[in-house]
Design brief:
The protein is of the alpha/beta class. The protein has two domains: about 270 residues, Vaccinia Virus protein VP39 (Rossmann fold, 3-Layer(aba) Sandwich), CATH 3.40.50; about 80 residues, Glutaredoxin (3-Layer(aba) Sandwich). Helices cover about 40% and strands about 20% of the residues. The chain contains 16 helices and eleven strands. It has a seven-stranded mixed beta sheet with strand order 3-2-1-4-5-7-6, sandwiched between helices. Helix 7 crosses helix 10. The chain is globular, with a radius of gyration of 21 Å. The protein starts with a helix and ends with a helix. About 5% of the residues have low confidence.
């Protein structure tokens, strides 16, 4: 199954969550049970939210989808610009906006239209003016470069097919000395193939998880420093057994309780902190690539364009210094750029990914960068 198929299934699964009010991820998951608010509160209390926090957000914002409380550990300061990756119906975003004050702002990004619609409605009925929800993928964030002080994310990156792209994008949008605070699901050892290939387990935050050391290495490889695990807890076995299709599969392969417990013990929830430190980069030793896109484009248009461009750039990423820039900027107007394009070293303009793919290796060799 390719990345787009996985995204479609995850998007459909989480659309059903917001429509039904049931949780599909996190301890005491209620996918097959009641959708009452007290169930959601019990789930959230078990992963670190206080009664005061739960009562301070709009009704309907808490869908019980998390595996930790990144806001509690994030030390959000007044005036901070905070980005919530996979913001859902807005639960963590609404907690964060209460801490940033009138001079700060919170931006939530989610790829599920139903989630964005629910979050915006929740914001409207609570009169939060400095929180904004944008439709988009976290591998192709609809956010400008170096504008975010703090990124939070709660049990979401495990759902992303390309963790590397997600962390690259997080690194791109953070300011120098900006911080990343993530609660997520990782593995202590590989899972059996039947779980990895289960879409029910994927939507439930299990099948998409990677080994803990791989997760942390990916963060380091994209440039994050001072990476620290602040907390690690086991993932309850009932999260794996809550889905009837999953249970049926277990019966078909005659899996014992001991084997099932062993699988559950392989899955843990971690809270990770990392920093994007300011580093002096000699840009003369790298090819400068500017990607011009409209920040107000629909998520589908943005995603398709960025995916095509990064399919070309990724094999040469260590030779490239790239930035995404808005089409409505003064710089774009000065360069007479009015549509999606890639600009190489401020000179050569490409409107076609095919042409960029054809010429990029030659340009790098001519400049003796590879």
């Amino acid at each position: 199954m390719n990345e787009e198929e996985i995204k479609k299934i995850v998007r459909t699964g989480y659309a059903k969550v917001v429509q039904s009010g049931n949780s599909c991820c996190g301890p005491m998951s209620s996918c097959c049970g009641s959708s009452e608010s007290d169930i959601m509160k019990d789930i959230s209390k078990n992963i670190g939210y206080t009664e005061e926090e739960l009562n301070s957000v709009p009704e309907g914002a808490n869908l019980g989808l998390g595996c930790g409380n990144p806001v509690a550990l994030a030390s959000i300061k007044e005036g901070d610009i905070v980005l919530d990756l996979g913001s859902g119906a807005g639960f963590d975003a609404f907690l964060a906006v209460q801490k940033v004050g009138k001079t700060g702002k919170v931006i939530g990004v989610d790829m599920t239209p139903e989630m964005i619609s629910a979050a915006r409605k929740n914001a409207d009925k609570s009169n939060f003016n400095n929180v904004e929800f944008r439709l988009g993928e976290i591998e192709n964030l609809p956010v400008s470069d170096k504008v975010i002080d703090l990124i939070i994310s709660n049990c979401v990156i495990n759902l992303v097919p390309s963790k590397e792209r997600a962390f690259q994008e997080a690194f791109r949008v953070l300011k120098h000395n900006g911080r990343l605070m993530v609660s997520d699901i990782v593995l202590l050892k590989e899972l059996p193939d039947f779980i990895i290939n289960s879409m029910e387990a994927y939507i439930g935050c299990v099948a998409g998880a990677v080994l803990k050391k791989q997760y942390l290495k990916t963060m380091k490889n994209v440039g994050f420093e001072d990476i620290k695990i602040l907390d690690q807890t086991s993932f309850p076995i009932d999260v794996l057994t809550i889905n009837p299709r999953f249970l049926e599969t277990i019966k078909q392969i005659n899996m014992s309780n001991e084997e099932l417990k062993d699988i559950a013990n392989s899955v843990v929830s971690i809270k990770v902190e990392a920093i994007k430190k300011e580093r002096k980069i000699d840009k003369s030793l790298k090819l400068q690539v500017d990607i011009y896109v409209p920040l107000n484009a629909c998520a589908c248009e943005w995603s398709q364009y960025m995916n095509r461009i990064f399919e070309v750039l990724t094999p040469y990423i260590k030779y490239i210094e790239y930035e995404t820039k808005p089409l409505n900027s003064v710089e774009a107007r000065d360069l007479n750029i009015s549509s999606n394009c890639v600009l190489i070293d401020g000179e050569k303009k490409y409107t076609s990914a095919f042409a960029l793919k054809r010429d990029l290796p030659r340009i790098l060799k001519e400049k003796e960068l590879m």
